[in-house]
């Protein structure tokens, strides 16, 4: 019994030590995406053989974060379609990035914007952020499946509050008026977002 008591005490002390090491959460407030730790990539099926993948290099998001009540939080995301990067291997033959960014049957050269309308908690550190997605000049509902990765009142290296998320959204191009004229490409697009948020005055976008 004495041995079991010692084990219980050791477990309690260990748990207390871990709790003490856990960083304090970031406070409520307005944050913006840190471009050094944020990325937006997307993929689309190519003939069912692979998923063609590209990324955007210019994205800015604003988060109104409510620590006590995450469902009251709001987010707005702006993406420059002309910042699309495909890593096309023959740039001397074709400016494929410009083609993707400007063609009417692709991104159309028009700003991409997501404005949240509601936040729903679906599990531990998981949630759904519903909102309006503007793409090629049309606005329709879209949903982000979000994972809350954590927050810190003071990120140890940057010495500023940080909040981190991963998110995935899936939608059909045809819902935004892009008929699948290019038969080699699928209709569904998957967008993958990784981002850290920091106070606006601490982030250079």
Automatic annotation (TrEMBL):
<dbReference type="Pfam" id="PF04264">
    <property type="entry name" value="YceI"/>
</dbReference>
<protein>
    <submittedName>
        <fullName>Polyisoprenoid-binding protein YceI</fullName>
    </submittedName>
</protein>
<feature type="signal peptide">
    <location>
        <begin position="1"/>
        <end position="19"/>
    </location>
</feature>
<dbReference type="InterPro" id="IPR036761">
    <property type="entry name" value="TTHA0802/YceI-like_sf"/>
</dbReference>
<feature type="domain" description="Lipid/polyisoprenoid-binding YceI-like">
    <location>
        <begin position="30"/>
        <end position="198"/>
    </location>
</feature>
<dbReference type="InterPro" id="IPR007372">
    <property type="entry name" value="Lipid/polyisoprenoid-bd_YceI"/>
</dbReference>
<keyword id="KW-0732">Signal</keyword>
């Amino acid at each position: 019994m004495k041995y079991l008591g010692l084990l219980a005490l050791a477990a309690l002390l260990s748990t207390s030590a871990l709790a003490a090491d856990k960083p304090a959460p970031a406070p409520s407030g307005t944050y913006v995406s840190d471009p050094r730790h944020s990325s937006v990539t997307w993929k689309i099926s190519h003939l069912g053989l692979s998923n063609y993948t590209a990324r955007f290099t210019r994205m800015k998001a604003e988060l109104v974060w409510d620590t006590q009540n995450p469902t009251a939080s709001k987010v707005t995301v702006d993406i420059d379609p002309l910042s699309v990067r495909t890593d096309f291997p023959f740039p001397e033959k074709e400016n494929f990035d410009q083609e993707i960014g400007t063609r009417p049957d692709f991104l159309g050269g028009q700003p991409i914007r997501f404005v949240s309308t509601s936040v729903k908690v679906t599990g531990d550190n998981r949630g759904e952020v519903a909102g309006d997605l503007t793409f090629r000049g049309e606005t329709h509902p879209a949903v982000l499946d979000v994972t809350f990765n954590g927050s810190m009142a003071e990120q140890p290296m940057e010495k500023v509050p940080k909040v981190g998320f991963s998110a995935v959204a899936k939608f059909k191009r045809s819902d935004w008026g892009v008929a699948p004229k290019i038969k080699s490409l699928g209709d569904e697009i998957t967008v993958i977002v990784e981002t850290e948020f920091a106070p606006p005055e601490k982030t250079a976008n």
